[in-house]
TrEMBL record, chains A, B:
The keyword Cytoplasm does not apply. Gene3D superfamilies: Homeodomain-like, Tetracycline Repressor, domain 2. GO terms for molecular function: DNA-binding transcription factor activity; transcription cis-regulatory region binding. It comes from Kitasatospora cheerisanensis KCTC 2395. Residues 7-67 form the HTH tetR-type domain. This is Putative TetR family transcriptional regulator. It comes from the Bacteria.
DNA sequence: AGCAGCCCCTAACATCGTTAGGGGCCGGTC
DNA sequence: GACCGGCCCCTAACGATGTTAGGGGCTGCT
């Protein structure tokens, strides 16, 4: 597998870190493993990188790297939605991607490109400068927060075999058997709270965001509940 | 300080962990330090707690414990906004609280109480069961995502002395000096993107959420852009 | 007296991020 | 040809981490 790598670059480091991340998760990503992945011993990494933090910054941008920007067609609303969906898909695609990205603003080149494109579309849609900036911030905050919650274990029945649907059913049971006099709403909404269909859950929030933003435009964009 | 603690309970563990978190941050929170805080050696913790993970679950609920639920007055919208503001304030109040809470769904008793109250108000406002559940999920996802981004270092000028405003100005300079032909929007919106006023940034998103949710109600709640 | 549970201990394990210091190799300069 | 400085990697080690194994008191019940 690992041929005598001709040169270790920051790029190859990022690629190696990405492979380790996929294999062992964020908790299992160590300097030594990344070093081994590029055919080198741990201490040598510090020639290319100041910290593990800096390595994670590299990894962060490498994750954003394969973000596909949505086609420039349809209403601004449809483009906005697509942006949100693809961002979520990106975070879900690679193991622990959300945890890596969370709390890591340091923008690499790929991140900058995505942000630039996003702002361009928002301004073209008629949003003011401040609103456009805040809207893009809002979207990324929502997506990151959502995926982070989505991927967190529902309780203690986490990595231990339990599938997502199974864990959801267990959580539902937990809610349903709560004391009904102190937690009437939790009991009543047990099914809704533990609905494992994360796609529609995400879509719900996304539509609310789009609606809220649409109200900012002079003509007030098309309403949300349209057919089809 | 540390008197010969009569008994180590899960409660006292949570309190100790909270103290260590405030002093040394999440990265500096180790089993040994928490143990020392309760007057015990590290291995003894494993009698009360299975994992460090479980300790963090305890800590998580201890953080939520001092959440003050907003007064039950005003429109549902005002109550919704207050909920968001207080949740953010809570996460900002304690060091690294957002990082602890992020990706930790396991609901302790305090978390359940807050959720119960939130759902009660949303249903009283007229939201359907599924919508109420999703709305509360939406709010917490936004708040967590926002605070997480808010607290992440703006670039490499992080813990190194630079104040928030100073870091923001540096980041603005970074954006402003980007190649203007490939990043015209980033250059143009440099000031808006790096505006250090996080309160209005947060409020913006919160208002958008409220607007989006209001559109779901039959009478369509009062519009956002009111005077005052 | 003895047994059982509770609660804490000392040691130790493997692994981690990081630093110190050394050594080849490669280009250019006297 | 000799020297030299930058580049890139090495071995060794430091302190700290989460976690487990095994032991030992103490309390209360039989």
């Amino acid at each position: 597998m690992a041929e005598p790598t001709p040169a270790v670059t920051r790029q190859s480091l990022a690629a190696a870190a990405l492979r380790v991340l996929e294999r062992d998760g964020l908790a299992g990503l160590s300097m030594r493993k990344v070093a081994a992945e590029v055919g080198v011993r741990a201490a040598s990494l510090y020639w290319h990188v100041r910290n593990k933090e800096e390595l994670l910054d590299l990894l962060n941008d490498a994750l954003i790297a394969d973000a596909e920007i949505p086609p420039r067609e349809g209403s601004w609303r449809e483009q906005f939605l697509e942006y949100g969906r693809r961002h979520r898909a990106l975070l879900l695609a690679r193991r622990d991607a959300a945890k890596v990205v969370a709390g890591r603003l340091a923008p690499g080149p790929h991140t900058l490109a995505v942000l630039e494109d996003q702002l361009d579309r928002l301004r073209a849609a008629g949003f003011g400068d401040a609103d456009a900036a805040m809207a893009s911030y809002l979207l990324s905050a929502y997506v990151q927060g959502f995926v982070l919650q989505e991927q967190s274990p529902l309780s203690a029945a986490e990595a231990a075999g339990a599938s997502r649907g199974e864990a959801a059913r267990a959580a539902g049971e937990t809610f349903r058997t709560l004391p009904g006099d102190t937690y009437p709403n939790l009991v009543a909404l047990a099914d809704d709270l533990t609905d494992p269909d994360m796609n529609t859950r995400f879509e719900f929030g996304l539509q609310r965001l789009a609606d809220g933003l649409a109200a900012l435009l002079p003509q007030g964009g098309t309403a949300s509940g349209g057919p089809s």
